[in-house]
Amino acid sequence: MKTEQAAVTRQTFDQVILPVYAPANFIPVKGKGSRVWDQQGKEYIDFAGGIAVTALGHCHPALVSALIEQGQTLWHTSNVFTNEPALRLASKLIEATFADRVFFANSGGEANEAAFKLARHYAVTRHSPYKTKIIAFHNAFHGRTLFTVSVGGQPKYSDGFGPKPADIVHVPFNDLAAVKAVIDDHTCAIVVEPIQGEGGITAATPEFMQGLRELCDQHQALLVMDEVQCGMGRTGKLFTYMHYGVTPDILTTAKALGGGFPVSAMLATEDVASVMAVGTHGTTYGGNPLACAVAEAALDLINTPEVLAGIEERHHRFHAALNAINDKYAVFADVRGSGLLIGAELTANYQSRAREFLHAAATEGVMVLNAGPNVVRFAPSLVIDIEDIDAGMARFEKAVARVITPTV
Ligand SMILES: *Cc1c(COP(=O)(O)O)cnc(C)c1O
């Protein structure tokens, strides 16, 4: 028997949730594929994907049945006992990548926290207690724990919390000379997003990625790739490093890994992983059977030629539509990105107004994201129907028209 539930509205948010978010003024209650409905029954086409998370759309039948099956079998064991879904998922991730070892956690920030601790611990145990410098990039985003927010390159997120973890240096992204100027034998790691997501959808150049690998090798530093946003098929290969032919020592993945169920993973080579011992690091929930069962189903679907090959066509559909809108309204200075991680940077006339486009889009019935103040971001399902792209872009065009012709 279902108990009566109290009515909640968008106003409830303002009363009960820590005021760190500014959610839209409607509440989604239902999703199917790339369509979402709010409390009032209004329909939206979802180009936001829960921030690059729902890579197979909402309530994909294969993920739903994995969740139900595991939900009726075993929910949680902790790491005092291992479990079958975690072992299967780890084996598949290893099979599909450079990695030999996997650590599971629950969020991107936690996977990165593990990665940075591992990089430091490797350098300290293998080389020297002074080999602790981490090189990272301006506008990078790696999560909100104090360590990850400090490695992130946006001081507005890390200031105001007292002393930060030390020995972290930030240099401009895609500037190899700047990295050369700061790297030395005390450097334990370079941390890089192959495509900066929150920072504005900026891809590393091939020369930059190649150069980072070479500099790491010269200085016995580890190359850590944060693929929390750009991984799991988002750019048309399972992981973005595969486009570059540059292999990391440590890689983190989260967002799309569970298709909407919270789960993350840090992947590492055997050599790097071997410095860890029982008790060096851990988490209660990491590798939870429900999370891993869903992620296994997501990986089984995403890592197929059908899904990966379909991303290119969808990418072109988005680009063509955005360029057509731009031909008409001249709002974008640049349309960029890879696969289904696309950014449309606003022209000087619309500086810092990306959120207005988000609000207008919601009004017209399409969910989009921003990436910083000047970039409208699209991170839809990797299997979004072409008709949904076309219908959503028609709505987005109306939203653009709405922003540039304000009603008096
Ligand atoms: C979202 C994101 C994170 C943080 O993930 P959370 O799950 O929010 O902790 C880290 N790195 C990148 C590149 C991200 O996009």
TrEMBL record:
Protein name in the entry: Acetylornithine/succinyldiaminopimelate aminotransferase
Swiss-Prot/TrEMBL cofactor(s): pyridoxal 5'-phosphate
Residues found modified as N6-(pyridoxal phosphate)lysine: 255
GO CC entries: cytoplasm
Catalytic activity: N(2)-acetyl-L-ornithine + 2-oxoglutarate = N-acetyl-L-glutamate 5-semialdehyde + L-glutamate; N-succinyl-(2S,6S)-2,6-diaminopimelate + 2-oxoglutarate = (S)-2-succinylamino-6-oxoheptanedioate + L-glutamate
Family named by the database record: Belongs to the class-III pyridoxal-phosphate-dependent aminotransferase family. ArgD subfamily.
Gene Ontology BP terms: L-arginine biosynthetic process; lysine biosynthetic process via diaminopimelate
Pathway(s) it belongs to: Amino-acid biosynthesis; L-lysine biosynthesis via DAP pathway; LL-2,6-diaminopimelate from (S)-tetrahydrodipicolinate (succinylase route): step 2/3; Amino-acid biosynthesis; L-arginine biosynthesis; N(2)-acetyl-L-ornithine from L-glutamate: step 4/4
Enzyme category, top tier: transferase
Subcellular location: Cytoplasm
Superkingdom as given in the UniProt entry: Bacteria
Note accompanying the cofactor annotation: Binds 1 pyridoxal phosphate per subunit.
Binding residues for N(2)-acetyl-L-ornithine: 144, 283
